[in-house]
Specification:
The complex is a heterodimer. Helix content of chain A is 71%, strand content 0%. Chain A is built from 11 helices and no strands. Chain B starts with a helix and ends in an 8-residue tail after the last helix. The chains are: A mainly alpha, B mainly alpha.
């Protein structure tokens, strides 16, 4: 750290540096652009397509991929491409929204525990330990069976389940930050608590949080797809990637493209988030510089 | 050691209580009982059935009765399968899941461990890139895509193996479920072992061992293997608990008569006792296997002190 001694041009900001490091990661960049493409297509295709995701077309049942229907049609004659793009929208919305919920809970819980320390800390983290052993997948299944298949419930439930990891990570990070020299220096300079948190703690936590948020999105998407596969996800005319895969699995013998296309797209999305997460970890985690 | 076990068990009890209470409360908090079926029953019969299962009692009496039975290891009668207890259902389903799960995990540990170790030894060569690409794919491919795809390829198109219509005892019926279950675990283990092996192989004690002139074989078997296995052990604990309670997806795709299917059908039909019973079983298994993982951790690494 030479910048503290010699007056030199202001070093590039944290985000600029992170972007530079990310740019050296071809896989992550490719993943990012593919994800961007998927988002764009899922927004645009339903708008410009002449087909609708819900209206059956009895003259075009089980059309294989071809000219009028690029990816074919399903058992009710609905265009697979449009349904696929709607499925992407739903899956991505659920994934991102539920991840935001879990990140919010996790960061608040972990940062409070880490910052407070002592009895508060051990009580809060014991709670997390206990919640870790609670079998959530069964509980969420029961919840969705019992309270009806509400869209909101699915992602609140998922979000409420997946905050545990983030809480642990944020707590550990806060603990290690709390005793660093620059925090002590800031305290010695008489910084207020809010300023300390907003200027020094949050920016240092943000990197880790972004990494884990990126890694939470695919698990949530998978979980939603899993629920949908069991018939517990979104309602019938609407589609998520999970319901499409589940439909496809039912027509496996006669019309395999109904399974392979949504399955591949789902895999692609999950894969992209994985590589993006890896890249972000290298770009944002200060220890990764070594 | 004993103190450690004691304290862990002390934490385990309230955890189990929380799990059971949560599951019990959730199932009873919702409208609709197990005997509100579509076909109307005469009121008397309905009443006598509910009396038989103590559903007419106030909730707290039902709760206490259930907890008391639970403490004696009795999970109660199933509501949906008449004259069958939850214990019997679990006893019927558990062996299937145990077999499929153990075989799958065995394959995953052997194949994944080997690939991961090889990738770490030959880092940044094609022995690293190719398996790791497939590992990334294997993690991203969800089980509910893999399982039907395996059926599509090996049962529908190649006609090598049967799909569905499970028949116990015939080896051919085991192959696809075991493979489908093993795939994600294999991928995960391969990546984990690779990461751990890279870290271990670049640590000073390995360099020392090499500098002493030991063969690569000895270095790996005597020095590197043990620390690499450590993260694997803590992963396998919960993983084993998971496969024992059955994979709902695998069981419904291949028609295995395991616990996961009972659970799903039970949840849809509001079979309170069956669902709570399986949930509690899962909780117990998680706790037990985590404990076992921690204990073997201490056995593998003498530096680990058991502190709850």
């Amino acid at each position: 750290m030479s910048s503290a001694i010699a007056p030199e041009p202001r070093p590039a900001g944290q985000w600029r540096q992170a972007w530079h490091r990310l740019r050296r990661h071809p896989a992550a960049l490719l993943a990012l652009s593919l994800l961007g493409l998927v988002v764009l297509l899922s927004l645009v295709v339903p708008l410009i397509s002449s087909f609708d995701y819900a209206t059956p077309d009895w003259d075009a049942l089980y059309q294989p991929p071809g000219r009028s229907h690029l990816l074919g049609t399903d058992g009710l004659g609905r265009d697979l491409l449009v349904r696929l793009m709607w499925g992407c929208r739903i899956s991505l919305i659920v994934g991102v929204a539920a991840s935001l919920v879990s990140v919010l809970i996790g960061v608040l819980w972990g940062a409070t525990a880490g910052y407070a320390g002592g009895v508060t800390d051990s009580l809060m983290m014991r709670t997390v330990d206990i919640l870790y052993t609670v079998p959530f997948i069964p509980l969420v299944i029961v919840l969705t069976v019992l309270f009806g298949r509400s869209f909101l419930l699915v992602f609140v439930a998922i979000g409420a389940v997946s905050w545990l990891d983030i809480a642990r990570i944020v707590r550990a990070q806060t603990l290690s930050l709390k005793n660093r020299e620059f925090i002590e220096a800031a305290r010695a300079l008489g910084l207020s608590n809010t300023r300390m948190i907003s200027r020094h703690l949050v920016p240092n936590l943000l990197g880790v949080v972004i990494i884990y948020a990126t890694l939470t999105v695919p698990t949530v998407i998978l979980f939603e797809a899993f629920l949908s596969f069991l018939g517990l996800g979104v309602h019938a005319p609407l589609a998520s990637l999970g319901t499409l895969v589940s439909d496809g699995a039912n027509h496996l013998r006669s019309h395999p493209y109904l399974l392979t296309i949504p399955g591949l797209l789902l895999t692609l999305i999950i894969c992209c988030f994985g590589y993006l997460g890896d890249g972000l970890r290298d770009a944002l985690d200060p220890r990764a510089e070594r | 050691m004993l103190k450690f076990l004691g304290r862990r068990l002390l934490i385990a009890l309230p955890t189990l209580l929380v799990i059971a209470t949560l599951a019990f409360g959730l199932l009873h908090a919702t409208p609709g009982g197990p005997f509100d079926s579509a076909k109307q029953m005469p009121a008397e019969i309905q009443r006598s059935i509910e009396a038989k299962y103590h559903l007419d009692e106030p909730l707290w009496r039902q709760y206490l009765r259930y907890m008391n039975d639970l403490a004696h290891g009795d999970l109660g009668p199933s509501f949906q399968y008449r004259n069958t207890s939850v214990n019997e259902l679990i006893r019927a389903g558990l062996p299937v899941d145990a077999w499929v799960g153990s075989l799958a995990l065995l394959i995953a540990v052997l194949a994944g461990g080997l690939c991961g170790f090889l990738a770490a030894l030959k880092r940044d060569t094609r022995w690293d890139y190719v398996p790791m690409f497939f590992a990334a794919l294997g993690i991203a491919l969800p089980v509910f895509v893999v399982a039907p795809l395996l059926v599509l390829v090996f049962a529908v198109q190649l006609r090598w193996l049967p799909s569905g219509d499970w028949r116990a005892g015939e080896f051919r019926y085991w192959i696809l479920p075991v493979l489908a279950l093993a795939l994600p675990y294999t991928a995960y283990i391969a990546r984990m072992v690779r990461g751990a092996a890279i870290e271990v192989l670049s640590s000073p004690f390995i360099r020392t061992a090499r500098a002493k002139g030991l063969t690569t074989r000895t270095v790996i078997l005597r020095h590197a293997l043990r620390p690499v296995l450590m993260p694997l052990v803590s992963f396998l604990g919960p993983a084993f608990a998971g496969v024992l309670t059955g994979s709902i997806i695998i069981e419904s795709v291949f028609g295995l008569p395991g616990i996961g299917r009972y659970f799903l059908i039970g949840a849809i039909n509001r079979d309170y006792t069956l669902v709570v019973g399986i949930t509690v079983l899962y909780g117990v298994l998680i706790i037990v296997f985590n404990l076992l993982a921690d204990l073997s951790y201490a056995l593998l690494d003498p530096r680990v002190r058991l502190q709850p």
